[in-house]
Amino acid sequence: MKEIKKNKWGIFVFFCLSLVTLYIVLNNYFDNSTKEDFRYSVATLTEINFIGKSSSNKIKFNYYYNKNVYKGSYYFDNDSTSYYESKIGEKFLVKINNNEWVNKLFSTSRLYINKPVPDSIKEAPSEGWKDLPTWAK
Question: Could you confirm whether the keyword Transmembrane helix appears in this record (predicted)?
Answer without folding.
Answer: yes
